[in-house]
Amino acid sequence: MIHKGTITLETDRLVLRRFSDDAEAVFKNWANDPEVTKFLMWLPHANVGASRAWCIHNVNAYAAENYYSWVIVPKTLGEPIGSISAVKLDDKISMAHIGYCIGRNWWHKGYTTEALKAIVKFLFEEVDVNRIEARHDTRNANSGYVMEKAGMKYEGTHRQADWNNSGLCDAAYYAILAEEYFKEGK
User: Left, alpha or beta for 150 (phi > 0: left; psi -120 to 50: alpha)?
Assistant: First the structure.
């Protein structure tokens, strides 16, 4: 892989950029909501201080060229409504595992799919990954729809193989390979 770090990406409706002093928006728009974090591995932020600490962690981590974590900012709003990251990288097989979340007020508007498509494009075309994967709790089918709309293919479900704030769960895996991405002319 040719690591480039978290660089600003733009789509028709979004700017994907590094975390900065975004604690207020992070807390207000998604991180404090138990419905948003229901199928995630981190608890809702109890206060804006927790969101500030998370922002600082990301800002400090940007020193590494193999760190990829963006806030999702609609151009019409100008503040973050969610985040998307490569939560795991494996350089030996050129793989990136993606995780994302978005505030409830922006569910079912296509923002997460648009963000994921931009990340897929960046990771294949700029970072030279071979495989991009993601997983979701089977009780959160909408997350799987996002993956499918971004060109990922369902690979199977690992029964009781994961956990989140809702407890033990089945994990549905999706992936797209570089050869599929470039063959389909994304």
Answer: alpha
pLDDT tens readout for residues 4-34: 999 999 999 999 999 999 999 999 999 999 9
Cβ atoms of residues 24 and 128 within 8 Å: no
Domain spans, the chain: 9-133
For residue range 55-64, list pLDDT tens digits in order.
999 999 999 9
Handedness of CA 80, 135, 163, 66 (dihedral sign): negative
Give the chain's mean pLDDT.
96
> Do 26 and 55 form a contact (C-beta atoms < 8 A)?
yes
Classify domain 9-133 by CATH number.
Answer: 3.40.630.30
Numbers of helices and strands, H then E, in the chain: 5, 8
* Distance, CA of 101 to CA of 36 (rounded, Å): 7
Q: What predicted TM-score, i.e. pTM, was given to this entire model?
A: 0.95
- In a 13 Å sphere around the CA of 4, the CA atoms on its Cβ side amount to 13
